[in-house]
Amino acid sequence: MRLRTVFFDWGGTLAQIPPQLNRPELVWDSTCSGFDIRRTEAEIHQALVEVDRSLGPQIYRYVGRTREYWGLYDGAMMDRLDIQFRRDEIEAAVQAKFEDPSVVQLFPETWSVLDRLRAQGYPLGVISNHHDGLLDVLRFHGLDQVFKSVTYSQEVGAEKPSSAVFERALKRAGCSPDEALHVGDSLRADVEGAEACGLSAVWLNRDGRPGVTTARTIRTLNELVPIVEQLAGPGKG
After folding, report:
1. Which of 9, 217, 1, 222 shows the shortest CA–CA distance to 124?
2. Within its chain, how far is the Cα of 12 from the centroid?
3. How far apart are CA 56 and CA 135, in angstroms?
4. What is the pLDDT of residues 6-35, one digit of tens each?
Protein backbone atom coordinates (compact mmCIF):
# COMPACT_ATOMS: atom_id res chain seq x y z
CA MET A 1 0.00 0.00 0.00
CA ARG A 2 1.29 3.46 -0.91
CA LEU A 3 -0.45 5.57 1.70
CA ARG A 4 -0.92 9.18 0.60
CA THR A 5 -3.81 10.56 2.64
CA VAL A 6 -5.20 9.92 6.12
CA PHE A 7 -8.86 10.86 6.49
CA PHE A 8 -10.63 11.33 9.81
CA ASP A 9 -14.23 11.36 10.87
CA TRP A 10 -15.05 14.36 13.06
CA GLY A 11 -17.56 13.81 15.88
CA GLY A 12 -16.58 10.97 18.21
CA THR A 13 -13.20 10.62 16.51
CA LEU A 14 -11.36 13.92 16.71
CA ALA A 15 -13.87 15.80 18.83
CA GLN A 16 -16.26 15.10 21.67
CA ILE A 17 -19.77 16.16 20.76
CA PRO A 18 -21.73 17.35 23.82
CA PRO A 19 -25.09 15.68 24.57
CA GLN A 20 -27.17 18.70 23.61
CA LEU A 21 -25.91 18.59 20.03
CA ASN A 22 -26.80 14.92 19.68
CA ARG A 23 -30.09 15.33 21.53
CA PRO A 24 -31.85 18.47 20.30
CA GLU A 25 -34.67 17.73 22.75
CA LEU A 26 -32.37 19.03 25.48
CA VAL A 27 -31.78 22.31 23.67
CA TRP A 28 -35.47 22.91 23.03
CA ASP A 29 -36.45 21.89 26.54
CA SER A 30 -33.96 24.26 28.20
CA THR A 31 -34.84 27.09 25.82
CA CYS A 32 -38.57 26.71 26.40
CA SER A 33 -37.99 26.66 30.15
CA GLY A 34 -35.88 29.81 29.90
CA PHE A 35 -38.81 31.61 28.29
CA ASP A 36 -41.26 30.17 30.83
CA ILE A 37 -42.87 27.99 28.16
CA ARG A 38 -44.04 24.63 29.42
CA ARG A 39 -43.80 21.77 26.97
CA THR A 40 -43.35 18.12 27.85
CA GLU A 41 -40.43 16.03 26.66
CA ALA A 42 -42.88 13.93 24.66
CA GLU A 43 -44.30 17.01 22.93
CA ILE A 44 -40.86 18.27 22.00
CA HIS A 45 -39.76 14.85 20.77
CA GLN A 46 -42.85 14.46 18.60
CA ALA A 47 -42.38 17.93 17.13
CA LEU A 48 -38.77 17.08 16.23
CA VAL A 49 -39.86 13.83 14.57
CA GLU A 50 -42.45 15.65 12.46
CA VAL A 51 -40.13 18.49 11.46
CA ASP A 52 -37.29 16.09 10.62
CA ARG A 53 -39.68 14.12 8.43
CA SER A 54 -40.81 17.17 6.49
CA LEU A 55 -37.66 19.32 6.40
CA GLY A 56 -34.75 16.99 7.14
CA PRO A 57 -33.85 16.08 3.53
CA GLN A 58 -34.06 19.72 2.45
CA ILE A 59 -30.82 20.61 4.23
CA TYR A 60 -28.91 19.42 1.17
CA ARG A 61 -30.43 22.29 -0.81
CA TYR A 62 -29.04 24.90 1.56
CA VAL A 63 -25.28 24.53 1.16
CA GLY A 64 -23.82 27.92 2.04
CA ARG A 65 -27.21 28.97 3.42
CA THR A 66 -27.48 26.67 6.40
CA ARG A 67 -28.52 29.49 8.74
CA GLU A 68 -31.52 30.09 6.49
CA TYR A 69 -32.41 26.41 6.68
CA TRP A 70 -32.29 26.39 10.47
CA GLY A 71 -34.54 29.45 10.49
CA LEU A 72 -37.14 27.45 8.58
CA TYR A 73 -36.59 24.48 10.86
CA ASP A 74 -36.96 26.48 14.06
CA GLY A 75 -40.06 28.21 12.73
CA ALA A 76 -41.64 24.83 12.00
CA MET A 77 -40.73 23.64 15.49
CA MET A 78 -42.40 26.65 17.09
CA ASP A 79 -45.50 26.11 14.94
CA ARG A 80 -45.80 22.53 16.15
CA LEU A 81 -45.15 23.53 19.75
CA ASP A 82 -47.75 26.32 19.41
CA ILE A 83 -45.28 29.04 20.37
CA GLN A 84 -46.71 32.34 19.15
CA PHE A 85 -44.76 34.99 21.02
CA ARG A 86 -41.09 36.08 21.19
CA ARG A 87 -40.31 33.76 18.31
CA ASP A 88 -37.27 35.72 17.10
CA GLU A 89 -35.75 35.64 20.58
CA ILE A 90 -36.43 31.93 20.95
CA GLU A 91 -34.91 31.16 17.56
CA ALA A 92 -31.80 33.18 18.44
CA ALA A 93 -31.48 31.35 21.76
CA VAL A 94 -31.80 27.94 20.14
CA GLN A 95 -29.26 28.73 17.46
CA ALA A 96 -26.79 30.19 19.95
CA LYS A 97 -26.72 26.84 21.73
CA PHE A 98 -26.32 24.81 18.55
CA GLU A 99 -23.76 27.10 16.92
CA ASP A 100 -21.43 27.75 19.85
CA PRO A 101 -18.16 26.10 18.71
CA SER A 102 -16.70 26.22 22.20
CA VAL A 103 -18.99 23.42 23.41
CA VAL A 104 -17.24 21.00 21.04
CA GLN A 105 -14.00 19.83 22.64
CA LEU A 106 -11.15 17.96 20.99
CA PHE A 107 -10.06 14.69 22.51
CA PRO A 108 -6.85 15.15 24.55
CA GLU A 109 -4.64 13.34 22.04
CA THR A 110 -6.10 14.87 18.86
CA TRP A 111 -3.57 17.64 18.32
CA SER A 112 -0.50 15.54 19.11
CA VAL A 113 -1.52 12.76 16.72
CA LEU A 114 -2.35 15.17 13.91
CA ASP A 115 0.96 16.96 14.42
CA ARG A 116 2.91 13.69 14.31
CA LEU A 117 1.25 12.60 11.09
CA ARG A 118 1.79 15.97 9.45
CA ALA A 119 5.44 15.96 10.53
CA GLN A 120 5.81 12.65 8.70
CA GLY A 121 4.43 14.20 5.53
CA TYR A 122 0.91 12.77 5.40
CA PRO A 123 -1.78 15.03 3.98
CA LEU A 124 -4.81 14.92 6.27
CA GLY A 125 -8.51 15.21 5.50
CA VAL A 126 -11.90 15.18 7.20
CA ILE A 127 -14.92 13.17 6.03
CA SER A 128 -17.94 13.94 8.18
CA ASN A 129 -21.70 13.59 8.28
CA HIS A 130 -22.09 17.28 9.03
CA HIS A 131 -23.26 20.58 7.56
CA ASP A 132 -21.61 23.95 6.86
CA GLY A 133 -21.20 24.57 10.58
CA LEU A 134 -18.30 22.11 10.60
CA LEU A 135 -16.13 24.72 8.88
CA ASP A 136 -16.75 27.21 11.70
CA VAL A 137 -15.87 24.64 14.36
CA LEU A 138 -12.65 23.71 12.58
CA ARG A 139 -11.67 27.39 12.39
CA PHE A 140 -12.45 27.89 16.08
CA HIS A 141 -10.08 25.07 17.03
CA GLY A 142 -7.40 26.18 14.59
CA LEU A 143 -7.78 23.05 12.49
CA ASP A 144 -8.73 24.78 9.26
CA GLN A 145 -5.02 25.04 8.42
CA VAL A 146 -4.30 21.44 9.38
CA PHE A 147 -6.52 19.60 6.93
CA LYS A 148 -5.82 19.66 3.22
CA SER A 149 -9.41 18.68 2.45
CA VAL A 150 -12.76 18.77 4.25
CA THR A 151 -15.74 16.85 2.89
CA TYR A 152 -19.11 16.82 4.62
CA SER A 153 -22.45 15.26 3.86
CA GLN A 154 -24.49 18.40 3.30
CA GLU A 155 -22.38 19.50 0.34
CA VAL A 156 -22.37 16.00 -1.15
CA GLY A 157 -26.09 15.40 -0.68
CA ALA A 158 -25.58 12.07 1.06
CA GLU A 159 -24.24 10.67 4.33
CA LYS A 160 -21.67 8.04 5.12
CA PRO A 161 -21.64 5.12 4.47
CA SER A 162 -22.76 6.33 1.01
CA SER A 163 -19.98 5.89 -1.53
CA ALA A 164 -20.68 9.40 -2.85
CA VAL A 165 -19.15 10.95 0.27
CA PHE A 166 -15.93 8.93 0.07
CA GLU A 167 -15.63 9.41 -3.69
CA ARG A 168 -15.92 13.19 -3.28
CA ALA A 169 -13.25 13.15 -0.58
CA LEU A 170 -10.86 11.08 -2.69
CA LYS A 171 -11.31 13.35 -5.70
CA ARG A 172 -10.75 16.43 -3.57
CA ALA A 173 -7.60 14.94 -2.03
CA GLY A 174 -6.31 13.77 -5.39
CA CYS A 175 -5.71 10.18 -4.40
CA SER A 176 -7.06 6.75 -5.26
CA PRO A 177 -8.85 4.49 -2.74
CA ASP A 178 -5.82 2.23 -2.30
CA GLU A 179 -3.76 5.26 -1.27
CA ALA A 180 -6.11 6.35 1.51
CA LEU A 181 -6.92 5.41 5.08
CA HIS A 182 -10.09 6.47 6.92
CA VAL A 183 -10.32 6.57 10.72
CA GLY A 184 -13.66 6.76 12.48
CA ASP A 185 -15.74 5.67 15.43
CA SER A 186 -18.74 4.27 13.54
CA LEU A 187 -18.35 0.68 12.39
CA ARG A 188 -21.03 1.02 9.74
CA ALA A 189 -20.49 4.58 8.48
CA ASP A 190 -16.73 4.90 8.81
CA VAL A 191 -15.32 1.40 8.53
CA GLU A 192 -17.77 -0.50 6.35
CA GLY A 193 -18.45 2.60 4.24
CA ALA A 194 -14.77 3.24 3.61
CA GLU A 195 -13.91 -0.38 2.89
CA ALA A 196 -16.79 -0.70 0.42
CA CYS A 197 -15.13 2.09 -1.57
CA GLY A 198 -11.70 0.47 -1.48
CA LEU A 199 -10.13 2.53 1.31
CA SER A 200 -8.35 0.98 4.25
CA ALA A 201 -10.09 1.69 7.54
CA VAL A 202 -9.34 1.87 11.24
CA TRP A 203 -12.13 1.57 13.79
CA LEU A 204 -11.70 3.87 16.77
CA ASN A 205 -13.64 2.01 19.44
CA ARG A 206 -12.98 4.06 22.56
CA ASP A 207 -15.57 2.32 24.72
CA GLY A 208 -15.00 -1.27 23.66
CA ARG A 209 -18.41 -1.53 21.99
CA PRO A 210 -19.26 -4.93 20.50
CA GLY A 211 -18.73 -5.28 16.78
CA VAL A 212 -17.25 -7.65 14.25
CA THR A 213 -14.75 -6.36 11.71
CA THR A 214 -11.49 -7.37 10.10
CA ALA A 215 -10.33 -3.75 10.18
CA ARG A 216 -7.67 -2.67 12.62
CA THR A 217 -9.25 -1.51 15.88
CA ILE A 218 -7.86 1.02 18.33
CA ARG A 219 -9.04 2.46 21.65
CA THR A 220 -7.33 5.85 21.33
CA LEU A 221 -5.86 7.90 18.50
CA ASN A 222 -2.44 7.46 20.09
CA GLU A 223 -2.48 3.91 18.71
CA LEU A 224 -2.93 5.16 15.15
CA VAL A 225 0.56 6.39 14.28
CA PRO A 226 2.25 2.94 14.36
CA ILE A 227 -0.55 1.59 12.15
CA VAL A 228 -0.05 4.38 9.62
CA GLU A 229 3.70 3.74 9.60
CA GLN A 230 3.09 0.02 9.06
CA LEU A 231 0.68 0.64 6.18
CA ALA A 232 3.06 3.10 4.55
CA GLY A 233 5.87 0.56 4.50
CA PRO A 234 9.64 1.13 4.44
CA GLY A 235 11.04 4.52 3.61
CA LYS A 236 8.12 6.59 4.89
CA GLY A 237 7.99 8.49 8.17
Report:
1. 9
2. 8
3. 20
4. 999 999 999 998 877 788 999 999 999 999
Residue 37's Cβ-side half-sphere holds a number of Cα atoms within 13 Å equal to 21
Beta strand segments in 118-178, E = 124-128, 149-152
Q: 23-43: b or e for each residue (b if 16 or more CB lie within 10 Å)?
A: ebebbbbebbeeeebebeeeb
pTM beyond 0.70: yes
Q: What are phi and psi of 36, to 5 degrees?
A: 55, 40
Give tens-digit pLDDT for 116-126: 999 999 999 99
Cα dist from 61 to 69, 99, 128, 150, whole Å = 9, 20, 18, 19
Which three-class secondary structure state does DSSP give residue 152?
strand
117 contacts 6 by C-beta, under 8 angstroms: yes
